[in-house]
Specification:
Blueprint: H1 33-42, E1 46-50, H2 54-62, E2 67-70, H3 74-77, H4 89-102, E3 107-111, H5 121-135, E4 139-143, H6 149-157, E5 162-167, H7 185-202, E6 206-210, H8 214-223, E7 228-231, E8 239-242, H9 244-247, H10 265-282
Parallel strand pairs: 1-2, 1-8, 2-3, 3-4, 4-5, 5-6, 6-7, 7-8
Bound molecules: 3-methyl-2-oxobutanoic acid (KIV).
């Protein structure tokens, strides 16, 4: 399906859109937080990927991905840290700017890194304002349920949409004892529900549920009026979100069990790099057609 006024290969030229738009907004118009609400009401699944740069954001936007999260997972995927803890606001701002510049349709969500919002609501607001002012993002995300409710409320009151994030929250991985599934058992499921209700009540427009059992995620999804977005929380959530480098086979090493890989880009790039090296060594590149 071709959309004449978006995604032109060269100015004015229609470009093939890879997939007809679906998910939160069925047109090429910009996805807004009201589309998240409507998707939940209509039972339409919302689709998100992380993105950390202009080129990947352009591709995902053209493909009709509803929202792009400039996650602090950039700590692992861009900066090579072992955890997300060292990531700073100053590191994420230029990445978020690149993503926001690339998109025509997707909602861009800026992740607030560890140490930039926990102290109090004022600190959270200050950081959220920096992201909104300096990057062009449309919303922010922060981790924590009941413990972050005041921060969410203050940021939302200032007119900044907040995506919440509960269950396994990577910024607390040491406190949680590692990459451990959350919301297990009766008490775990009750705490998850309390956290979910707290962020909804504080004004979050959506909530990420990371690494929780499907049945606990189902209970939260049925209890809330805002959409739930699964990162390893099973099929009953209102949408799905994955870290793009895991999803596209760019990540070398272990990937979480819940990830389905839709491509093997690391292998493709490596083969291409080997072919290039061999062509240069043999003189096959550059060929006459590559000369001016
Ligand atoms: O930073 C990130 O990529 C995230 C998602 C895993 C939810 O927070």
């Amino acid at each position: 399906m071709a959309f004449p006024d978006t995604g032109s290969a060269s100015p004015g030229e229609p470009r093939e859109v890879v997939a007809p738009y679906g998910g939160a907004s069925t047109s090429q118009k910009r996805v807004r937080i009201r589309h998240f609400q409507k998707a939940k009401q209509d039972g339409v699944k919302i689709v998100g990927l992380t993105s950390y740069d202009f080129l990947s954001a352009q591709i995902f936007d053209r493909a009709g991905i509803d929202f792009l999260l400039v996650g602090d997972s950039a700590g692992n995927t861009v900066f090579g840290y072992d955890t997300t803890l060292p990531v700073t606001v100053d590191e994420l701002i230029p990445l978020t700017r690149g993503v926001a510049r690339a998109v025509k349709r997707a909602l861009v969500v800026a992740d607030l890194p560890f140490g930039s919002y926990e102290v109090d609501a004022r600190e959270a607001l200050h950081t959220a304002i920096r992201f909104m002012k300096e990057t062009g993002a449309h919303a922010v995300k922060l981790e924590g349920g009941e413990r972050s409710a005041e921060q969410i409320r203050r940021v939302v009151e200032a007119g900044i949409p907040v995506m919440a994030h509960i269950g396994f929250t990577p910024q607390s991985e040491h406190g949680l004892g590692g990459h451990v599934i959350q919301g297990r058992g009766e008490r775990g499921a009750e705490q998850l529900l309390r956290d979910a209700r707290a962020v909804e009540e504080a004004g979050a427009f959506a909530v990420v549920l990371e690494m929780v059992p499907s049945e606990a995620a189902r209970a939260v999804t049925e209890a809330l009026s805002i959409p739930t977005l699964s990162v390893g929380a099973g099929p009953h959530c209102d949408g799905q979100l994955l870290v793009w480098s895991d999803w596209a086979g760019m990540t070398t090493g272990r990937i979480p069990k819940f990830v389905k890989q839709y491509a093997q880009l690391a292998a493709t790039l490596e083969q291409a790099a080997v072919a290039f090296r061999e062509d240069v060594a043999s003189g096959a590149y550059p060929a006459p057609e590559h000369e001016y």
